[in-house]
Every structure is written in C-alpha cells, then in structure tokens.
Design goal:
alpha/beta; D-Maltodextrin-Binding Protein, domain 2; six-stranded mixed sheet; four-stranded mixed sheet; 20 helices; 12 strands; ABC transporter substrate-binding protein; Bact_solute-bd_prot1; transport
Length: about 425
C-alpha cells in the first residue's frame, strides 16, 4: 500500500513507542532477565485462543518480553469469556489484560468500573494508527478502553472453482446474480448451490448482518445495533425477506432447510471441500483452515468471492478481539501499546491466521496473496466497514446458544414463510435483553 501522511505519522508514533519499550534493554534481556525497563514485572493476559492461535499469540508476547525483560503469562478463557472473568473480578484477581470477543463486553465491564482507560503510548498508537470507527468501537462514553487486535473478515463466500466451471458460471457480484443466474445454473447442472452451517447459530447472524448492511446501509446498521430502531422496522423485515431467497428454497441448500439447520460449522465447510455435496459455503476468512483440513488448497481449489451487493454497495462485516486493561500495575499500558503497534502486528501477520485493523501494517506482511487481498479490503473500506452486529448487542440476545438471534434465525431457516413474525420475535428478545 502506498505511503501517505497518516501512515507516516503512525509509523513515527510506533517507532517512538518501540524506542521507549527498548530503552535500557541489553542484548541479554529477556523473560525475567536483567537490564530491561520492566525486569521483574509479571503480567497475565487472558484470551479465548487455544491451539495454533494461542501459539502464535505467545510468540508475539515473547517479543515484548525480549524488549522489556517482563514476564508475560497467558491463560485461555475458553469460549465463554464472561464465565471466566466473572469469578476473577469477584475475587479481585482479574488478568492484567483481557482480550474480549465482543464490544458489548467492553461496555459492560467499563460500566462496572473493571477497565482501565488507555493512556500514554497505548492511547497514542490507537489515535494515530486506527480509523475513527475502530477507536469508537473500543470506547465507552468517549473514553478509550480497548484496541481491536485481531480481525476476522466475514464478508466472503467460499466456492469450488471446479463446480462453477462444470456449470459454466462465474462468481457473482450482486445478490440477484447469486440467487438467480449462479444458483439456478448450478441447480440445473445437478449441483446443490449451498452448504449451510445453521446448527451454529452465529453463522446465521453473519448472514443477516451482511444482507442488512448492504441493503439498509451503515447508518441504519448502527441504529439497529444500538436498538435505536426496533427489530420490527421495515428494514429488518426486508432483510429477512431477502434471506428467504436462499433460506426458503430447499433446492438451494444441501439437505434442504432441515439439513441446513442441523449442520454445524465447520461440517458445512467439509460438505463443500471434502464431501463435495455443494458448490458454496458462506463464512469468514477463518474457514480457510477447515477447507485445508478437508483436503483443499486455498487459492487453488478453495477460493472465495466478496459477499455480493444486495443494495448499492457490497457489505464488509468484520469480527474480532479487543484488548482491554484490567490492571493498573506497571507494564500494563506498555504491553497494550506494544500489542497495538505495527511492529507486533507485523510479526503476527507473518505467522498466518491473522488480520490487522492497524493502518500501518503493510499488506505484504501477510504470508499469502489471499490474506493480503482481504487485509487490503479492510484498510480500503475505511469507516464504511462495520463490526459484527450480534457481538455489539447484549450477549443474551446476540451471542447465546438457544436464545435470541441464534435461535430465532434458526427457526426462520426452518420456515421462512413469515418474516414479520420473525422480526416481532427478534424485537421481543432484544427488549428482554435490554431490560
């Protein structure tokens, strides 16, 4: 990506932060070693990551240890971050830094007084290297608490090029092309268009968010996320009607709607790339790992196209993880500044399975062309990109198994005949979660 004044300012800020962190470090400084400005300081970071994600993150943390002499320990929260943090907060023993999977949790913990505002270099890097939207995402009442560390691109549809070639179709650019020419031609060729991941309710909220963002636009998307307009609004009903173009057609889905609601993620990816029961599957960039497990090669027989435009513009929905400080001790703000920096995130980008929202991380930091393209789309989108809506609302409505959006959209996948009734259920659930 070409240089620009904003990037130059960000690079200067990051360089200054790096210089500060490196001050007084000797070549032998390391975890628990002498000579670092934070020698003897012990910090605890908690996040949901396990396996290769945890290994990569710990490699990034090692860079901070080497520069400062601090010792950084990691604990996995498991998938339910709130269940992990609740007892820790009650006992007065929270981690120094927590990495939250939902902006809604940032607001919840800030209102409890459990978070420490960003300060010093951490606040400076956020101001210089992140767009207004990302800054606001981690802020509560104008106070910055969090930094989006790891993004997930949720606006792509994976497909099998061989299936498209057999049917004689190209990747569509509009919703009408997707549901019309592409899907119809695939069906006529005896190829089921979609594998659906409906047993994992969060995948259905991702479908909804992409269609809603493109069809209703960013302003109404923000209003709906804040519940400033009701879920019975015409824009919600229209999105449900649009989803029914696929969800309401059994011939579109592997196993029909019943099969779709019984198939979880990542089995749906295996259905496309392992069993080859369908031509396409919708989910984010992270589905690449599951395609590889199914025997596909990303960029060759596992490729993706942007989620088609439903309205005037195609959507760009991003999920991700936000780092917040829960401790006020020495080293907390320094570690937040390091994790937010282009230096740390460039290291992370080179390890794979990662996307950055930091505008100073060059796209060539990523190990493959596909990820480079995804990273560039996030940077190019500027403030038109939107964060996963279901992760912005109260978790009881947007992110809980068997409740709220997950269960209501699963019911709508089973029977898409009454969008108005589904919208009414969504509004009732949202209102209950707000009360």
């Amino acid at each position: 990506m070409p240089d620009n004044p904003r990037r130059a300012r960000g690079a200067i800020a990051v360089a200054a932060a790096g210089a500060l962190l490196a001050t007084a470090c000797s070549p032998g400084a390391g975890p628990g070693g002498g000579g670092g400005e934070l020698s003897g300081v012990e910090l605890l970071v908690a996040a949901k990551w396990t396996g290769i994600e945890q290994q990569n993150f710990e490699e990034v943390l090692a860079g901070f240890e080497e520069q400062t002499g601090a010792t950084v320990s990691y604990e996995s929260t498991g998938e339910d971050t709130g269940a992990y943090l609740g007892p820790k907060l009650e006992a007065g023993e929270p981690p120094d830094i927590a990495i939250l999977p939902q902006p809604g949790l940032v607001q919840e913990y800030a209102e409890q007084g459990a978070l420490v505002p960003l300060a010093g270099d951490a606040a400076s890097v956020l101001e210089e290297d992140y767009t207004d939207y990302w800054r606001e995402l981690g802020s509560v009442d104008g106070e910055a608490y969090g930094i989006l560390l790891k993004a997930a691109h949720k606006s792509i549809i994976w497909y099998r090029p061989d299936a498209f070639a057999d049917a004689g179709v190209e990747p569509p650019t509009t919703w009408d092309d997707l549901t019309g020419t592409t899907a119809t031609t695939l069906s006529d060729a005896g190829i089921t268009p979609f594998a659906m991941c409906g047993a994992s309710g969060w995948t259905l909220t991702d479908w909804f968010e992409n269609v809603y963002l493109s069809q209703a636009g960013p302003e109404q998307y923000d209003q709906l996320a804040a519940h400033e307009i009701p879920w019975t609004d015409d824009s919600v009903v229209q999105t449900l009607e649009t989803l029914a173009d696929i969800w309401g057609e059994d011939s579109m889905i592997n196993g029909g709607s019943d099969g779709g609601v019984q198939t979880d993620f990542p089995t749906c990816v295996t259905d496309v790339y392992g069993q080859q029961n369908a031509a396409m599957v919708y989910e984010g960039d992270f589905a690449a790992a599951n395609a590889v497990e199914a025997g596909a090669t990303v960029g060759e027989d596992a490729v993706a196209f942007p989620f088609p435009a439903v309205g005037d513009e195609p959507p760009l929905v991003v999920g991700g993880d936000i780092a917040v400080g829960m401790g006020e001790g020495e080293g907390v703000q320094e570690l937040l500044a390091y994790l937010a920096s282009a230096e740390a995130q460039t290291t992370w980008a080179g390890l794979g399975g990662y996307l950055s929202a930091n505008s100073s991380v060059a796209t060539d930091a990523y190990e493959d062309e596909f990820t480079q393209q995804l990273a560039q789309t996030v940077l190019d989108a500027g403030d038109s990109v939107r964060y996963d809506l279901s992760d912005q609302v109260p978790s009881g409505f947007g992110a809980t198994e068997g409740r709220g959006m997950w269960s209501i959209l699963q019911d709508f996948l089973r029977d898409s005949s009454d969008p108005e009734a589904a919208a009414e259920e969504l509004e009732n659930a949202a209102s209950d979660a707000d009360s």
